[in-house]
Each structure stands twice: as C-alpha cells, then as structure tokens.
C-alpha cells in the first residue's frame, strides 16, 4: 500500500512505469506535464508544452538531462527549464519531484 503524499504533492505514477531516457505525459490538477527518468535515476517534471511551437515535449527525445522538442529542435534543461538551443527562448516551468520509499513518483506544481 502506498503512503499518503505530502501536502502539495500529487502521485503521478510509480517509478517502475517510467522508462529511463524517455518522457511520459501526466496531468496534475488540469496541467499537463512531462515526467522524465534520466540515466542517473533521478526523475524530473516540466510543463509538457514547448514554449516555441506549442507541441508536446513528452513526445521528444531525451538526451542526458535535456529534452528536445520534436517539431523544431529546441532543447530544454530538465533542471532549470531553460532552453539550451533555439528557436525557443522562453523557459518551461519546472516542478518539484519526490520519489517515496515505495517508489511512488510525486509532483508538486510550480506556480
């Protein structure tokens, strides 16, 4: 049985449901996010919409700790949300992630 999430955190999936090096789409309180488990095992969450092309980032390619928008090739840093390549110039929101002792992935949305 899973523990109750801390106030402000919502369970989005179990760690076993995330494939390392790929993004998964999730919805938290009506907001669509991309959840990514990177090679070092950490999990990150960002807004799912590219700030340049308004397309789903979870459909893009993960490389290290960045994700690439499949439409125009903009890359975003999963830690800061900042674009690391053009054409995007506006960052995406980064959300706080916790992984519980039993492997639940919990997200607290940024403002």
Question: How would you characterize the overall build of this protein?
Answer:
Helices cover 0% and strands 41% of the residues. It has strands at residues 10-14, 23-28, 31-37, 43-47, 61-63, 66-68, 75-77, 83-85, 94-99, 104-108.
Summarize the structure.
Helix content is 0%, strand content 41%.
Largest sheet: 6 strands, antiparallel
- Give the radius of gyration: 13 Å
Strand content: 35-45%
- Terminal CA distance: 30 Å
Q: Give the proportion of residues in helices.
A: under 10%
**Helix count, per DSSP?**
0
Categorize the overall geometry.
Answer: globular
Ranges where pLDDT stays below 50 over 5 or more residues in a row are: none
- What is the arithmetic mean of pLDDT? 94
Q: How many strands in all? A: 10
* SSE ordering: EEEEEEEEEE
Structural category? mainly beta
- Strand ordering within the main sheet: 1-10-9-4-3-2
Write the layout of secondary structure elements.
Layout: E1 10-14, E2 23-28, E3 31-37, E4 43-47, E5 61-63, E6 66-68, E7 75-77, E8 83-85, E9 94-99, E10 104-108
Antiparallel strand pairs: 1-10, 2-3, 3-4, 4-9, 5-6, 6-7, 7-8, 9-10
């Amino acid at each position: 049985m899973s523990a109750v999430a801390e106030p402000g955190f919502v369970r989005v999936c179990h760690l076993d449901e995330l494939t390392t090096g790929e993004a998964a789409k999730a919805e938290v309180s009506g907001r669509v996010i991309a959840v990514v488990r990177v090679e070092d095992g950490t999990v990150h969450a960002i807004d799912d919409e590219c700030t340049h092309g308004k397309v789903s980032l979870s459909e893009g390619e993960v490389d290290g700790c960045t994700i690439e928008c499949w439409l125009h090739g903009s890359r975003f840093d999963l830690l800061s949300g900042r674009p690391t390549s053009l054409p995007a110039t506006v960052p995406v929101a980064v959300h706080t992630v916790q992984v519980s002792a039993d492997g639940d992935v919990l997200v607290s949305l940024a403002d």
